[in-house]
Amino acid sequence: MPRLPRSSYLADGSYYHVISRSINQTPMFRDPEDFARFRHLERKAKQQFPIRPLHYVFMATHVHLVLQTIRSADLALHLRHLKWHYTLWMRKKYGWKGPIWRERYRSIPIEDDRYLSACGLYVELNPVRAGICTTTAEYACSSARRYELGQPDDL
Q1: Could you tell me where the DSSP H helices lie in 14-71?
Q2: Which residues contact 47 (CB under 8 A, 6 or more apart)?
Q3: What is the pLDDT of residue 33?
Q4: What is the C-alpha to C-alpha distance for residues 141 and 120, in angstroms, rounded to an integer?
């Protein structure tokens, strides 16, 4: 059975939980420079194809974004730009061949405030559940520091 086109459920101004995973759970972020590059590319994608990120976490093998679309069409363009340019980075830096992303990203609609809050907490708790840190604020590649410590966040 063919999958539904994203345009059938994306709407301007709506909220989504976006997940994208690496192929075969291969680490995509291997050092701080990789995380910094992904953040840089996210900022560039946001300038070209605006979205409003609310929560995020960049893990070694996957990324989570909780975001609000401004124009629904920009979500796919934003993620295509981000993922393609990061793939080019991985190929150049590590001599990677072929795809790094397992599949197209998942975008799960968030339909109420309660789910939006739970989703943000779920995303930011990823590094704690993975045993990387003991508190969400310890993990640098997450929006948790903004909410817990009041630190500015350029995303």
Answers
A1: 32-48
A2: none
A3: 96
A4: 14
